[in-house]
Specification:
The protein contains 11 helices and 8 strands. The protein is of the alpha/beta class and 310 residues long. Helix 6 links the parallel strand 4 and strand 5. Helix 3 packs across helix 10 and helix 5 packs across helix 6. The termini are far apart.
């Protein structure tokens, strides 16, 4: 039996690390062993966001005067700032009264640190894979910049490019992500860490556009890493409607014809799904706080007719 050390966040107020054993095969899904996905908001290991939610609550109550800082490392989906920008806009509307503070940069230095606002900094590189962040996080200078920036939430959003690569296994990819998270946590121990799984991606073949074969394995590796490292996980692919959903999004004008990227409307729709899940997880347990409504019925995205509510 292969002994693994897993870190599970089990309390709302503090991180408690519990070693467990796992004998799961390296390249087979083991969803039943990686924590419970909260079907009400789409997150796996939601408790890993508690630190971020406490800071957001302090900001909302005006007991915190520093900006809320979110940093997202990723690929072209991140660099475009369409997904991150749409989430940032919603956060600023709900918590800043609609005041807009644009933070769009690929600089890995610290973001602005003046006044009360919510900063969502997209640090994306076209074509990037998680191994790029793995290399960067091995640099003391990079980690020093992360520490200086003092992020409240670190988002890791890769997978679209490496999902077609053959140089990784579920085990090796999960190990790489857990190493990245450990180094980021050493630089920003108070930050919550969230892995966002990639959206569905299709490739052209003799039978038309089909979802890439290794997508389920890559998502499994990311969920495994989130569980082992005490991070939260949210899947864009699942939010879209699952494997094979990109074709539907393209047909609806939400995905581009490369079946990899989205139109501006598509990124906004995906951001609305993520923000709805995020804010509902945050509002849960806070009496009198309104919940965000999903703007998209996933049954409709799968082509299943949905009768309007009366």
């Amino acid at each position: 039996m292969l002994l693994k050390t897993a870190f599970l966040l089990i309390t709302a107020g503090a991180s408690v690390y519990v070693p467990i054993q796992s004998s799961a095969p390296m390249d087979r899904p083991f969803s039943s062993a990686i924590g419970v996905r909260d079907q009400s908001n789409g997150f796996t290991n939601e408790a890993a966001l508690d630190s971020f939610f406490r800071q957001l609550a302090a900001y909302e109550s005006h007991s915190r005067v520093r900006p809320i800082k979110i940093v997202q490392y990723g690929d072209s989906h991140t660099k475009a700032d369409l997904f991150t920008g749409a989430v940032r806009k919603r956060l600023q509307q709900d918590f800043d009264g609609g005041v807009s503070h644009l933070v769009r940069t690929t600089s890995y230095g610290s973001a602005a640190n003046d006044g009360r606002t919510i900063l969502y900094q997209p640090l994306g590189v076209n074509g990037a894979r998680a191994k790029r962040l793995n290399e960067m996080s091995g640099s003391p200078g990079f980690l020093e910049s992360v520490s200086h920036n003092r992020p409240d939430l670190i988002v890791i959003a890769y997978g679209t490019n490496e999902v077609t690569d053959l140089d990784w296994t579920v085990d090796s990819y999960a190990r790489m992500l857990t190493g990245i998270i450990a180094r980021l946590r050493s630089a920003a121990p108070d930050a919550s860490i969230l892995i966002i799984g990639p959206p569905d991606r299709s490739v052209a073949g003799s039978g038309g556009w089909t979802s890439v074969r290794r997508m389920p394995l890559l998502l499994e590796a990311q969920k495994r890493a989130a569980f082992l490292a005490g991070a939260a996980f949210w899947s864009e692919c699942d939010a879209m409607g699952g494997v094979g959903s990109m074709n539907t999004w393209v047909a609806r004008g939400l995905g581009r014809f490369d079946h990899v990227h989205f139109t501006a409307a598509g990124y906004d729709r995906l951001a609305a799904l993520f923000y709805g899940d995020l804010i509902n997880a945050y509002r849960k347990g806070r009496k009198g706080a309104p919940e965000s409504k999903r703007t998209l019925d996933l049954r409709d995205m799968r082509g299943i007719p949905v009768s309007p509510k009366k």
